[in-house]
Every structure is written in structure tokens, then in C-alpha cells.
Specification:
single chain, 297 residues, alpha/beta, five-stranded mixed β-sheet, 45% helix
Length: 297
């Protein structure tokens, strides 16, 4: 087997593996489909193995392909980190920083913070990676992560910025139509927007009241920004960040004395990046911004 493996061939392999077809991989890589096919065939020849089974339904990865996808993804992340580092003039807070956040934070919380960051550090660009799965800092998937749980891995620098409060809110129009619940028992009779299959969210609801089962949520989705959109549309009552609910004049907090467990929040980065100016600037900015946001909760 040849060990001179062209990185572009590996990129083609990873694109086909993740996209499921040559055409989709070609669009992702912005090259022609025959180019992807040629690169994949070259890689298979160099490795002496078959990576995909071609069929009318697309490209089915072999067992060896599934194993090789793990280091291929690690190499892709390292390549992206290399490009971000190369974009930075030495000693200056400039270049690109990639931030991993939950979907809710990406849509509802982070935008004004990044607008302020652009004013403070106009030479720093930001890539936002929204996902409810924790991005891997050790594997350089992101440079900085906003975590709603304490970091457990070594080699990480973290700052706890406070606890984000939660509460039930409803649109004024909904309350005018249905009335305002004054007890949990009354709340359970309302149109409640809540989780579908997310175990953590369902357990949080049950901890508030055993009657808050999945079936009690008449509008169910695990996508928190969609829950907020439904709330703002007047579709029902939903639990959201208190800071977001209170800043919207059309929303009213319902049962504010309910003992919602707050969400402890950390800003985290790899210790190797603590002295990189662009990363440190964004880290410090997020620590300050999220600390203020938590205080408003």
C-alpha cells in the first residue's frame, strides 16, 4: 500500500461519506462530479481497498470506510484550525475564531454579543457552529465553546459566567384569549409548548410537576428556537430564558415563583489557545457578555 496519500483525495472521501453521493460531494467541494470520482478511485487504489459500494441509492460506505471516517474528520478539523491560525497576523487580535453554541443560544442570545464584538474587534471574524451536541475542543472542532455543563476534560480553560434563569412566558394575545394561570394545576390545562423526545427537557418538566408529561405539551419540538417562535406567535405557553422573555414587551411571565432549576453556563477554550490574541479577545468578550446576560436572568 502506498502511504503517499493526497489530502484532496481524503477530502473527497470524507465529503462522499458525509453527503452520501458523488454529486452532493461535488457540490460541497465546489468541483465537478468526475473530479470527485477520480479522487475517490485514486484513494481506493492507493489504499488497496474498496471504500464504497455503488448503488442506485447512492454510495454505501464499507466497514473500513466507517473506520477511516474518524481520522479523516480529525484531519479536516485540524486543517480548518490551521487555516484559522494562518489568517492571524502575529501578535494582533485579528483572524477567525470558531464558536460552538447550542441552537437556542446561536439564534436568540449570541447575535447582539457578536455585533458588539465586531465594534470592539473589527479585525476578528467569527464562525458560529450551532449544535446541541457539545463541540470537541480537544479535537479543534471549535476554538471556544459555550457550555451548559461543567467541563470535565483536562487541558481546557473555563470561566463560569453565572446561571441563566428559566421561566414560563406567554404572548399577551394568548393570555387575553385564554386567561392567565395562577397555579400549576391551571397551567396544565393550557396550551403548553414543550419538548418532544429530549430526555433532559422532559425530566426538567417532570421535576416541576409529575403531571407535566410529554402528552401535556400540545405543541412539541426539541428545537428550542422553534419553541420561542411558537410562543411569540401566541400559540401557547413555553419555558424560555427569563432574560429573553422580559426584554420582549409582548411577552408576560406566568407563575414567576415556580422553582425552575437555572442553567449554569461556562465559556471554555483549549489551554493552548489562551495566549492567542484573537481567541483571547473573543473569550474575554463572551465571558463579560454572558455574565451580564446571566445577571439579567
Amino acid at each position: 500500500m502506498s502511504y503517499e496519500i493526497d489530502w484532496e483525495n481524503q477530502r473527497a472521501f470524507l465529503a462522499v461519506f458525509e453527503e452520501g453521493s458523488l454529486s452532493a460531494a461535488a457540490r460541497r467541494l465546489e468541483v465537478a462530479q468526475p473530479t470527485v470520482r477520480a479522487r475517490l478511485e485514486s484513494l481506493e487504489h492507493a489504499l488497496g481497498i474498496v471504500l464504497f459500494i455503488r448503488s442506485v441509492n447512492g454510495m454505501a460506505p464499507t466497514e473500513q470506510a466507517r473506520e477511516l471516517a474518524v481520522p479523516a474528520r480529525a484531519m479536516a478539523r485540524a486543517s480548518q484550525a490551521f487555516v484559522r491560525a494562518a489568517s492571524t497576523p502575529p501578535g494582533e487580535a485579528a483572524g477567525t475564531v470558531r464558536i460552538g453554541v447550542s441552537e437556542m443560544v446561536a439564534v436568540e442570545v449570541l447575535p447582539p454579543m457578536l455585533a458588539a464584538l465586531r465594534v470592539a474587534h473589527p479585525r476578528v471574524g467569527v464562525e458560529v457552529a450551532p449544535s446541541n451536541a457539545s463541540a470537541d475542543l480537544l479535537e479543534q472542532e471549535v476554538d471556544i465553546a459555550v457550555r451548559m455543563h461543567a467541563p470535565r476534560q483536562g487541558a481546557l480553560v473555563s470561566r463560569k459566567v453565572g446561571a441563566i434563569g428559566l421561566g414560563f412566558f406567554a404572548h399577551r394575545d394568548y393570555l387575553a384569549r385564554r386567561g392567565t394561570p395562577t397555579t400549576l394545576a391551571e397551567l396544565i390545562g393550557h396550551d403548553i409548548i414543550g419538548p418532544d423526545r429530549d430526555g433532559n427537557d422532559l425530566r426538567t418538566a417532570l421535576a416541576l410537576d409529575p403531571a407535566l408529561t410529554r402528552e401535556r405539551f400540545v405543541l412539541r419540538t426539541d428545537h428550542h428556537p422553534t419553541q420561542v417562535a411558537l410562543l411569540r406567535a401566541g400559540a401557547g405557553i413555553a419555558a424560555i430564558h427569563c432574560a429573553k422573555g422580559r426584554e420582549d414587551p409582548e411577552l408576560v411571565q406566568v407563575l414567576p415563583a415556580l422553582p425552575f432549576p437555572p442553567i449554569d453556563t461556562w465559556i471554555v477554550m483549549h489551554e493552548d489557545l489562551r495566549d492567542v490574541p484573537r481567541v483571547r479577545a473573543v473569550f474575554d468578550h463572551l465571558v463579560e457578555a454572558f455574565s451580564e446576560y446571566a445577571r439579567r436572568s
